[in-house]
Amino acid sequence: MKIGIAADHAGFDHKRKLLQQLAEAGYDVRDFGAFELDPADDYPDIVVPLAEAIARKEVDRGIAVCGSGVGVSIAANKIHGVRAALITDTYSAHQGVEHDDMNLLCVGGRVIGPMLIREIVETFLKATYDGGERFERRLQKVIALEKR
After folding, report:
1. Is residue 99 among the annotated active site residues?
2. Residue 112: left (phi > 0), alpha (psi -120 to 50), or beta?
3. 3-state DSSP call for residue 64?
């Protein structure tokens, strides 16, 4: 599985740790930045290239970290084909994939700790979309909304 990862200044240190975690787990990881700590950077500039790569299927899933996780999730969801969600627990991390085919995990580096982020990421990446009739029916309704 090819994973994309991005973080602004508020998630910069978490991203470095996640890069190591993902590499050790054997994932093919593409880093979308930030590549240096810049307190003045803006989360849309960081997450949009990752979201576009997900939409073009250059990466299978993405992980985005900002201060709260809210900004990156809002910006990423503006990109057609991206299903991003702010996740703060492991249940939602797998349920979002299994039921909603979530493809971009957003976390808040200032609101949850590094061990919980690690567990959420592991859970997200191990989950698979159920594809059952009711989940697919709902997903198609979401996709139809994007096309309006």
Report:
1. yes
2. beta
3. strand
Catalytic residue status for 66:
yes
Q: What is the pLDDT of residue 22?
A: 97
| Structural domains of the chain ordered from first start | 2-147 (3.40.1400.10)
Q: Is the peptide bond before 34 cis (omega within 30 degrees of 0)?
A: yes
pTM of the model: 0.95
pLDDT in tens, 113-122: 999 999 999 9
Query: Could you say which of 9, 80, 94, 99 is catalytic?
Result: 99
Question: Which of 9, 14, 66, 94 is labelled catalytic?
Answer: 66
First-to-last C-alpha distance (Å) of the chain: 31
In the structure encoding, which two tokens stand for residue 108, read together?
């808040």
Residues 6+ apart with CB under 8 A from 48: 75, 76, 79
